[in-house]
Task: inverse folding
């Protein structure tokens, strides 16, 4: 029996609960045992909610219950989420999360703690929403040395850029539209200033290169400076403007990381990724370029990734990821002028990044 | 220590040997133990070959050696490859293959045999070449009910169709070009008549729907009838002609399968997949559409998938795939006239399939 506690009953947390009930038979057949939501932890009340009876307010209820084997952390941030994750791992419970901030901020410590306690800390949902990317990159491309990762990793900014291109909107109007549809938060800074893309890229880079990369090693640039004029100029030269995150291992072992607007030729696999979709191109030495594409955010896509990780927790534990923190000097930002640029701008062309 | 025997020293087999030597340190770090090629089995001689000393001619050498824990079958076909696979599984050895014909022909028996003997029969390389698709579909999308799979699954025909579209070549000229570059075999029927696409689609459908689908349940149509005129007509209406394999689970549980040329709108994720690249779109109930894209064939991409499966063999065995063969009546071909068609043709439009 797999008993799950969901911490945080917001958009993603409620999606996880919904999916665990909806596809319950599928989970039982995939794990060989019943899977049930035993607790939902939140400090808020949800009177009349279908699963109100599962709500608890005290983390001790979860931590002290020996029947709980998987804790889903969808609280977000690196405060209480960090404390609860640490304590759940110490209590010998697997933890599954969509929290990219916490994974990037405290990954090395939490992964080591999971290993010490013989459990997992899994975070497929932290990058690419409903697109399986961490598992296929680590296992499906396991025979490859990964040279490069380049992707559209943030749905909010991709929606804004798509609106600007297709409907000629200004950045401000497109942002307003994104907020209206719930794609952008009231304080949209983490998305539009590139920090969210940067954190996700750092998670992928840490996994691919085996060494921990903290987001503060990279200087992200966001999309506030992208104007309709720039988009038109790009279009005229056969390019589209996308917010790109890229990590490339150079021959000397240095990893060069870039987060910012870039010009993508219309025939490039990332060019036609529109709206809230994400795409991640991974280059392996044997297989070449592989693209993973799908919905990068949203309630049910993110719940899909969280719940797939819950199924993973039912398998025998066989390998622990550890991120080496001893060497922080292998990451650098590209030197100014290092790329090819879109004519008349300082926007780099994606293939030269 | 993982000792590998490679059966069949052709294009894929030699790629596997090359990659196992090239990325040897990576394999050791991923599996926690040394990985070595101990035997290469082939009836041919390779005088002067770098790995000539590993060549053996008698399968008994492989089967009787208790040190061999992984057998790579890259012989192809369902004759001797079938016999050797069966005997290797019975001898308690994991078998990894790129042989779609054998997987589709004898999958239920070989998977059951693997389970009885506590070993694996893995075939990531049988579909999509170097693109991880089976693992992410089964695990990364594990929380989803899969409704539909639609893809470009054959690199040879996609190369031919790309040449016809971009260079205005006739089918015959484009086929000749494909043969000249080694993308098409001297007898290209399995590719151009759709059987290869059909077998790969049947493998994905069997995995997604848990019931075995043999290729003879589907009536594939190939691309011999695609003319430059049809391509122009499609182009004028905003479509591209692609050889599409599609399996869709209808609400009544019936799976409708289609293999044939179809019209793909220019903005569709499969439209820009050119040359020998493949793309597979999988629709899950929670995550929506996810696309996996990359090199669908070739020596090193296919070796990448085989070698990733070798790494999988080093993990604790936790689940066995079994294909139910009791019910063969859940598959049907679409009734004539069931789709929307490209105006003035009998070519279905991909979204209606």
Result:
């Amino acid at each position: 029996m797999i008993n799950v506690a969901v911490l945080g009953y917001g958009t993603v947390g409620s999606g996880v609960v919904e999916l665990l009930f909806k596809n319950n038979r599928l989970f039982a057949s995939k794990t060989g045992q019943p899977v049930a939501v035993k607790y939902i932890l939140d400090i808020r009340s949800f009177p009349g909610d279908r699963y109100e009876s599962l709500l608890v307010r005290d983390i001790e209820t979860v931590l002290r219950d020996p029947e709980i084997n998987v804790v889903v952390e969808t609280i977000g941030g690196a405060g209480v989420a960090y404390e609860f994750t640490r304590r759940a791992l110490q209590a010998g419970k697997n933890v599954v999360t969509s929290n990219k901030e916490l994974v990037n901020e405290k990954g090395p410590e939490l992964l080591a703690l999971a290993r010490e306690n013989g459990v997992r800390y899994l975070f497929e949902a932290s990058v690419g929403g409903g697109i399986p990317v961490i598992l296929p990159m680590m296992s499906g491309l396991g025979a490859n040395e990964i040279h490069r990762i380049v992707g559209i990793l943030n749905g909010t900014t991709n929606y804004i850029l798509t609106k600007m291109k297709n409907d000629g909107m200004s950045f401000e109007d497109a942002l307003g539209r994104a907020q209206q549809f719930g794609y952008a938060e009231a304080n949209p800074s983490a998305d539009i200033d590139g920090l969210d893309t940067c954190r996700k890229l750092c998670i992928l880079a840490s996994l691919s290169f085996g060494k921990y990369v903290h987001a503060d090693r990279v200087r992200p640039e966001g999309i506030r400076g992208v104007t309709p004029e720039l988009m038109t100029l790009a279009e005229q030269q056969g390019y589209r403007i996308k917010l790109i995150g890229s990590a490339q291992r150079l021959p000397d072992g240095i990893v060069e990381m870039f987060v910012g607007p870039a010009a993508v030729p219309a025939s490039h696999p990332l060019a036609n990724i529109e709206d809230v979709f994400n795409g991640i191109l991974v280059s392996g030495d044997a297989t070449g370029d592989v693209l993973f594409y799908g919905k990068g955010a949203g309630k049910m896509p993110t719940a899909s990734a969280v719940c797939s990780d819950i199924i993973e927790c039912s398998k025998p534990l066989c390998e622990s990821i550890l991120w080496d923190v001893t060497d922080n000097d292998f990451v650098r930002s590209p030197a100014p002028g290092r790329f090819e640029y879109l004519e008349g701008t300082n926007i780099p062309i994606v293939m030269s990044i």
